[in-house]
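User: Here's a structure from my thesis project, written as structure tokens. My advisor, Dr. K., wants to see whether a designed sequence matches the one we expressed. Can you design one independently, without my sequence as a hint?
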């Protein structure tokens, strides 16, 4: 029972993102939470993450460089197995409350083996609240 199970269709979407710059709006069920955003490649995820550190101290600059390298390594890897899913513009919903975080362009990374289910499309809040 030591094998991690992951949805082969979801893994296919992740592989398409990683290899072909494919993006897809998707909503995931993960351990009772709902995670909604846009599927992106691991390289795009690491590139965007590295941008958060570019204008900082020497340590922040080094972190930025290492994250950019991680993105390149993932892209060059011939390993067809995908173990992580990466989303941008992510919102996480727990129960009926507002999403956390509710503002900002949030990057999210999760284990494919932890995803319980998914549907295509992302949750968007209505403009008017009654």
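Assistant: Designed independently from the structure alone:
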């Amino acid at each position: 029972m030591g094998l991690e199970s992951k949805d082969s269709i979801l893994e296919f979407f992740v592989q398409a993102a990683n290899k072909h710059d494919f993006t897809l709006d998707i909503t995931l069920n993960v351990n009772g939470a709902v995670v909604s955003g846009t599927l992106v490649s691991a390289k795009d995820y690491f590139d965007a993450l590295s941008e958060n550190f570019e204008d900082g101290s020497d340590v922040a600059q080094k972190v930025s460089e290492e994250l950019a390298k991680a993105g390149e390594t993932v892209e060059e890897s011939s390993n067809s197995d995908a173990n992580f899913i990466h989303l941008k513009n992510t919102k996480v919903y727990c129960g009926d409350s507002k999403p956390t975080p509710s503002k900002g362009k949030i990057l999210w990374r999760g284990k494919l083996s932890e995803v319980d289910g998914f549907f295509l499309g992302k949750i968007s809040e209505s403009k008017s609240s009654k």
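When you compare it with your expressed construct, this may help: Helices lie at 8-20, 42-51, 58-76.
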